[in-house]
Specification:
Blueprint (H helix, E strand, L loop, with lengths): L4 H10 L16 E4 L2 E5 L12 H14 L7 H5 L2 H14 L3 E5 L2 H12 L5 E5 L4 H10 L2 E5 L4 H14 L5 E6 L11 H10 L3 E5 L14 H4 L8 E5 L9 E5 L1 H10 L1 H4 L6 H14 L2 H20 L2 H4 L8 E7 L1 H13 L2 E2 L2 E2 L9 E6 L6 H14 L2
Parallel strand pairs: 2-11, 4-5, 4-6, 6-7, 7-8
Antiparallel strand pairs: 1-2, 3-9, 8-9, 10-13, 12-13
Helix pairs in contact: 2-12, 4-12, 5-6, 7-8, 13-16
The structure holds pyridoxal-5'-phosphate.
């Protein structure tokens, strides 16, 4: 019997949906090298340039010298080392919550948290554009799922009314993102908070792409809108603007204690390397200092420049609201072709296709870093004008 792998791969290729790994030989920086070629990188989530920052490297090296490389076991056995505890104390302070819990990735955070907090008899209400990790966690939980069209408050409210009727005793959790990962737009958080309160639902907010980018000291969207106390379950990643690896939940002491006891991706997985925890702690401390504020200003200066120089026909009516700027092209083939031409011209900009986005909404996803130069941004805009329009 044939394993069918070939047919499946051929089918993906025929639909311009085949994906391939590409190896780079340099640190994450605005300029990366591949096979001896220098390319300008507009595809990283390292928005502040922290992935290669000296202070973080030093923190990781010091932790390796003191603790070695592996943590030896799961957190609940003997894998909780002082860098993990220190990271969680720092995360709680940064988020202004009673407690926080670090996971080995943002993906593990979403899946572990939703499966810990919801089960049959509960309801999870998600924005249609939520990240795969949130969707997978919601599906795996066994709770009833209700999806509302992107940022659609009326549908959110009718789903909550349904939830209250069908699961009067159940836990109801609204899940959304502060900044959407493939669209770069923001959730209408004040309105969502008002609605979730009326229906006595919990709110889980994924700040993966807003931490480090928005708010005082980069605390995220809830901070910008002064709604921090109204978010029940703060989720974030340590892997995007913080430049390291891992994810976290911040919230009440009781929430964290429940996750320690129930989140399977936390319980049944070896604790992250101590060096990663130490580097993430250094990232948050850096973010809370003057250097963090200055670097974030540079990021927004670069975003303003991109907004000015980007051909109008590509940006459309959209405003730049985060470090993620999508150029929506439609067909997968068109997005792939545009990405290949940009690559030939020396720019790394990914083509985002189905199933990451809807079938007719394939796009280029430009991400900007504080470390890009004005010349690099201008050159990208010129290349887009030349090669994509
Ligand atoms: C990247 C991302 C995650 C997953 O985080 P990782 O640390 O990469 O596993 C979760 N949610 C959102 C919105 C993301 O963009």
């Amino acid at each position: 019997m044939s394993d069918g792998f070939d047919e499946e791969l051929r089918d993906l290729r025929a639909r311009s949906l085949l994906r391939r790994l590409r190896t780079f030989d340099s640190p994450q920086q605005p300029t990366v090298s591949q096979g001896g070629r220098q390319l300008v990188n507009f595809s990283s989530n390292d928005y502040l340039g922290l992935a290669a920052e000296p202070a973080l490297r030093e923190a990781a090296k010091a932790a390796i010298d003191q603790f070695g490389v592996g943590s030896g076991s799961a957190r609940l056995v003997c894998g909780t080392l002082s860098p993990h505890t220190r990271l969680e104390e720092t995360l709680a302070k940064f988020n202004g919550t009673e407690a926080a819990l670090a996971f080995s990735s943002g993906y593990a955070t979403a899946v572990g948290t939703l499966t810990a907090l919801a089960r049959e008899g509960d309801v999870i209400v998600l924005d249609k554009l939520c990240h795969a990790s949130l969707i997978d966690g919601a599906k795996l939980s066994g709770a009833a799922l209700r999806v509302f069209p992107h940022n659609h408050l009326g549908k959110l409210e009718s789903h909550l009314a349904w939830a209250r009727e069908h699961a009067p005793e159940g836990r109801v959790i609204v899940v959304t993102e502060a900044v959407f990962s493939m669209d770069g737009d923001r959730a209408p958080l004040a309105e969502i908070v008002a609605i979730k309160k009326r229906y006595n639902a919990l709110l889980m907010l994924d700040e993966a792409h807003s931490i480090g980018v928005l708010g005082h000291h980069g605390r995220g969207l809830a901070d910008v809108l002064r709604l921090h106390g109204d978010v029940d379950i703060h989720m974030g990643t340590l892997s995007k603007a913080l430049g390291v690896s891992g994810g976290y939940i911040a919230g009440s002491r009781k929430l964290i204690e429940l996750l320690v006891n129930r989140a399977r991706s936390f319980i049944y997985s070896t604790a992250p390397p101590p060096a990663a925890a130490a580097a993430a702690t250094a990232a948050i401390e850096w973010l809370m200092g003057d250097a963090g504020e200055q670097r974030r200003e540079l990021l927004w200066r670069n975003l303003a420049r991109l907004g000015d120089k980007l051909p109008r026909s590509l940006l459309g009516e959209r405003r730049i609201q985060s470090a993620i700027v999508p150029i929506i092209l439609g067909e997968s083939e068109r997005a792939l072709d545009a990405a290949e031409r940009l690559f030939e011209a020396g720019f790394v900009v990914p083509a985002i296709r189905y199933p990451t986005v809807a079938k007719d909404a394939a796009r280029l996803r430009i991400t900007v870093s504080a470390k890009h130069t004005a010349e690099q941004i201008d050159a990208l805009c010129a290349a887009l004008e030349r090669l994509v329009i």
